[in-house]
Design brief:
Layout lengths: L1 H7 L3 H53 L14 H11 L47 E6 L2 E7 L5 E6 L13 E7 L4 E4 L7 E2 L2 E2 L10 H7 L13
Antiparallel strand pairs: 1-2, 2-3, 3-4, 4-5, 6-7
Length: about 230
């Protein structure tokens, strides 16, 4: 009986070899599974962020009419006007939201990030994107997403969303994306939507030096992160 049991069992060497094979397979497949899950999560949150703002503006249009006729619509270069615009036309139409403190670095209160550290968004190259309470107005955390507004230096308001709140890496194209207000269409669209999707086969405004247009890449790829997406997720 003991001899039969021995023949039916596994030797230590066989067990170790089997465990080694399992380990190699896991090492090869688990990173891919994690990356795929992360990509799906990123796209889902990005769509949620865009829908949240657009749904709010649709409700505001019902109350105030066409966006082009709204107050402050032609004065986005003034930080105070942007704040008044958001407080009037956006905040009241987002469930659970209320005006955020003016200091973008130490925003506190119900639903807002509580941090003594400065929030520094940056590009994949590592360059810091300047941020101050004068230029950016935080809307706060909703569904785990940190919303704040800015100005593109021309005439348009830009909405930035950090998909994992104020947690790092605060990296454009990874957890940080930008939308642009389009008053003539009563909506927001992915930032740089007026620019080409690709130039000579290379993504425009979604690269190592500047990734503010990476949301457009995802949208135009059918709300998927394509294989040639320049930012590793």
């Amino acid at each position: 009986m003991s001899g039969q049991a021995a023949r039916l069992g596994f030797t230590l060497a066989e067990v170790l070899i089997t465990l080694g094979i399992i380990g190699v397979v896991a090492a090869l497949t688990i990173p891919s599974v994690i990356s795929k899950h992360k990509k799906i999560e990123t796209v889902t949150k990005l769509k949620t962020a865009m829908t949240t703002i657009n749904s709010a503006f649709k409700l505001a249009v019902v109350d105030y009419g066409e966006m082009q006729n709204w107050d402050y619509i032609n004065d986005f270069d003034d930080a105070a006007s942007r704040k008044k615009f958001i407080d009037k036309y956006l905040i009241p139409y987002i469930k659970g939201a209320s005006p955020s403190p003016e200091d973008a670095y130490e925003a506190s209160g119900l639903g807002y990030p509580k941090s003594t550290d400065k929030y520094y968004p940056h590009q994949p190259s590592g360059s810091i994107v300047g941020m101050s309470s004068r230029n950016y107005y935080p809307i706060g955390l909703l569904n785990g997403i940190f919303y704040y507004s800015g100005f593109d230096g021309s005439t348009n308001m830009v909405f930035n969303v950090d998909l994992n709140g104020i947690n790092k890496p605060n990296l454009y194209g990874y957890d940080l994306f930008a939308f642009e207000l389009v008053p003539e269409q009563n909506t927001i669209k992915m930032y740089t939507f007026r620019y080409p999707y690709k130039t000579n086969g290379v993504y425009t405004y979604c690269n190592y030096d500047g990734a503010s247009g990476c949301g457009l890449v995802i949208e135009k790829s059918g709300w998927q992160i394509p294989d040639d997406y320049p930012i590793k997720i």
